[in-house]
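Moderator note: this is an archived Q&A kept for reference. The question asked for a predicted structure of one protein chain; the sequence and the answer are reproduced below.
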Amino acid sequence: MSTSDNNEDGDACPVNGHNSRKVRFKGKEGNNVEMLVGPMSSPSVSWKDLLLRNFAKLKEKAGGKNKEHFNLEERDFSMTIVNGILAIDFSDRVKNYLLKDIETTVVVKLQGRSIGYITLQNRVSSLWQPS
């Protein structure tokens, strides 16, 4: 093998540009390092999390923590065809179940962003409060 240059260690480098070096790995003995972790800081709560947490508390008060399973039965809906269009009518039981979950959820698009009802109410009231 012909050599053209020497590398920084003084070893000969091959002409084809490939450089081979001998590499030795140190044994794993003697590397016993204990890592101590400081106390975990509580993560900061975002406005969205704060809003959703308050919503979850409202849901717990209204419906309890345990969510019952809702089974849709034959008597809970009726299907009819009106002017060639399928119409589905739900019973009051189904309507009440659906409204119970969404009665406090109102999401409005304001300046291209989704905003909750409480936040919207706070912004509007802050605009109308005399300074």
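Archived answer notes: The longest strand covers residues 77-82.
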